[in-house]
Amino acid sequence: MKVLAIAFSEELKSLLSSALKGDAIHWIATKDQFFSEVDNYNDGMFSAVVCELSEGPEFALEVGQVMRSLCPQTPSFACALDKKEFAAKTIRKNGYSDVFLFPIDKGSFLEAIASAMTPEALAKRSYKRIMSPDLQAKSKLSFTTYVHLPLNNKYLVFANKDEEFTDKKAEKLTKFQVGSLYVDQKDSNRFYEYVAEQMKSADNSLSETERGEKLKSSIRSMFNELFDQNSEESFDHGKELMESCRGLVSTYIVGPGQKTDFHTRLLRTIGGVGMDYSHSADVSTLAALFGIALGSKKVEELAIAGFFHDVALASFPVEYGYEINPQWDEAIKKTFLDHPQQSLNIVKTKKMILPPEAEKMIFQHHEKFDGKGFPKGQAGDRILLEAQILSLADQFHYLTVARPGQARMSPLEALEVIGKNGSLGPALLNQARSLFNKK
Amino acid sequence: MFAPTTKILIADDMTTMRKIVMKACKELGFAAFFEAADGQIAWQVLNENPDIGLVISDWNMPNCSGLDLLKRVRADGRFKSTLPFMLVTAENEAAQVAEAIKAGVDGYVVKPFAANALAAKLGEIHKKYNKKAA
Question: Is B28 on the interface with A (CB under 8 A)?
Fold first, then answer.
């Protein structure tokens, strides 16, 4: 990978040329050259960015902001050849990882460049964590997988691209309790395609029950990872996992090779952003995952219904929750009681035609198995199974995310609450519980 | 609701940053844009186009900063508090955020941001305005 060098002075040019091999640098000699190329830049193209400040601070600050937006993982360094240009705080605030004043900082500048180019630094930026149980023994992988050795921060090849992922390798992962492997970021889509394909076809030689078990086990591992409260991983890791699940559901539904993901397409179709995007996309993802694990044949419809089920509640305060509170005033109550039908009406005004099953799921997602739901008070089998799955995903999402003043519940705690409110049938509830029991 | 026809004013002194914000908005289905290279031009554009329905402005701009533009908008009877205003900024220090909130900003996104982050923030702003209208 090359260093992107925006250098105007002979001093910086010769310093970089002597420190790096000629073909390891992509030179930018003019501002126009930068602006004409910048649209094509993305993370993974450059090991580092160097920009000289001598052409005036405006240009350098623009470079800093733009590169941080387009290539957030790539370190960028500013070089000041004159003390007057050395406004370190402003420069860092505008996206640069560090700033160096020449000639005194030459040594630390070269060290920073060298450390940005070490295999470890490059590896850290370009690997994506995946969950080991997603890999099926005896399947052929279209991407190379790696194990991470945290003590010396190294990534070693575990299974090669285009080779069979053997039983022996699968056993090894179980034996040494390796829960995560890594793939090159560039292979993320191949990984989604692989898992989606595994889920769709499973193994033709398997019985329906075995196939169901296999899917269940795959989704179970995703859920366990997503909702692992004991995990010391950061909030960002949780977001990253949800993004992965979203990518997977998107690939499962729209198939491989699509540039725009499923939820962005839906958002674009409905136009504008008058909805709670993250709630919609998360419930849609969870509904699809629950649907796959519980053997539904209507996964796409579930994902669509999950995305639009609350579109009429865009202005409804999230802290009000998902159950009617007797203390609400009449207007609030009416908005809430009408929202399944109103959500469908809004979708229709956007000239969107939903699959009839998806419409029914939206309409029935507040019906309860015990007949005490709304809008019709239907009970038992009169409620579509997928409408119950959507209700499960909706409530589950609400209960398991952190809300102001309340701790998030564990999946089993959330299912206990859901189990007591009569919204789901006992069979579905048991199946959902089995997804979160320890293996 | 922010309809896809909502006209958006994007104010940033950096051409490329305007392009990045516009690209993210296009991803969200918006199609009508005005651009301004500083706060002063943004103010003129706003005066000439009263149907602009959303302002996304950089904080640091020459002539008139994003914060000053926001203060002007909030002080003007024609716009008052009904024009949604979002700041895109590299400044995420508590004091500065507090100053922007005091001046009536509806939301801010810290650079760098992805289209989804912008969507989430615009969703929040829309929710706030719907609540006000109710």
Answer: yes
Residues facing A181 on adjacent strands: A130
Render pLDDT for A255-276 as a digit per residue (tens, 0 to 9).
666 656 677 767 666 654 455 6
Tell which of B14, B18, B91 to mutate to test the A interface (max A CBs under 10 Å): B14
Q: How remote is the C-alpha of A216 from its chain's centroid?
A: 21
ipTM: 0.71
User: Which domains does chain A carry?
Assistant: 2-117 (3.40.50.2300), 127-201 (no CATH), 216-434 (1.10.3210.10)
pLDDT tens-place string over residues B10-57: 999 888 888 888 887 877 778 889 999 999 999 999 999 988 999 999
- For chain B, what are the domain ranges? 7-133
The answer to whether the Cβ–Cβ distance between B126 and A314 falls below 8 Å is yes
- CATH number at B7-133: 3.40.50.2300
C-alpha A116/C-alpha A237 separation (Å) is 23
Between B16, B29, B116, which is nearest A62 by CB?
Answer: B16
Min Cα–Cα distance to chain B from A317, Å: 8
CB neighbours of B86 closer than 8 A, spacing ≥ 6?
A: B54, B55, B56, B57, B105, B106, B107, B108, B109, B121, B122, B125
